[in-house]
Amino acid sequence: MIKNVHGNTLDFLGEAILKGQYPVGSTLPPEPVLGEALGVSRTVIREAVKSLIAKGLVSTGPKVGTRVLPAEQWNWFDQHVIAWQARVGLTPEFLRNLQELRRVVEPASVRLAALRATDLDIAEIEAAYAGMALAVKKGGDYVSHDLQFHMSLLKACRNPLLIQMGKALSALLRTSFELSTARKGGTAASLPLHRAVLDAVIAHKPLKAEKAILALIDGASQDIDQVLVSRKRLPRLSKPAPALKAS
Known about the structure:
By secondary structure, this protein is mainly α. The protein folds into two domains: 5-73, Arc Repressor Mutant, subunit A (Orthogonal Bundle); 89-230, GntR ligand-binding domain-like (Four Helix Bundle (Hemerythrin (Met), subunit A), Up-down Bundle). It is built from ten helices and two strands; from the N terminus they run H-H-H-E-E-H-H-H-H-H-H-H. It has helices at residues 5-19, 31-38, 42-54, 79-88, 92-116, 119-138, 142-156, 160-182, 186-202, 206-230, and strands at 58-61, 65-68. It has a two-stranded antiparallel ribbon with strand order 1-2. The chain is elongated.
């Protein structure tokens, strides 16, 4: 989908801030200067800045201009912010923060899913697992099925707040899944761990499901640590997820 002028301007400014082109504490150029540089009107710049304010990246005030705020104040659950970080480049600190977040959110969600999952919920999770297994065996898009597996688990917890958080987490989770896919044998090794989670949910055993998802998250953490140690290029979410080759 082609973005409008506002969307392109917002993306440009957002990525520039995350790149450090406008460091924390610095001020953005005045509206006329930005407008002339980007070839857009002052109104477009003004609307883009309003969006940046809503996402916590900048603040404005009399006689101080538009000032860049510290990263701790940015809305990291905003999909635009996540996408900008992915395009700029993921960092080891970002990935470790992601794994810590997963250990907080997913075990509680899966525990609830084991208590509340309906037959339809379980069918969706099973379909996602089947797609993962097929990708491992015959090649194909493993990452999308893996993401659907986890999103279906969040949906099955029947908590609208956690479900909404899952939507924001989806881009972050894909990062972890791509790293596991990149490691040789990583997908085949994680498949039984996913099966253990699914079996516990089917059996409606919350503690067993929680233990299984923690094992899965810890396995992903090991994959990420190996990639960081090897200094391999980290994935960029602006590109399609890599497909597996047939085993």
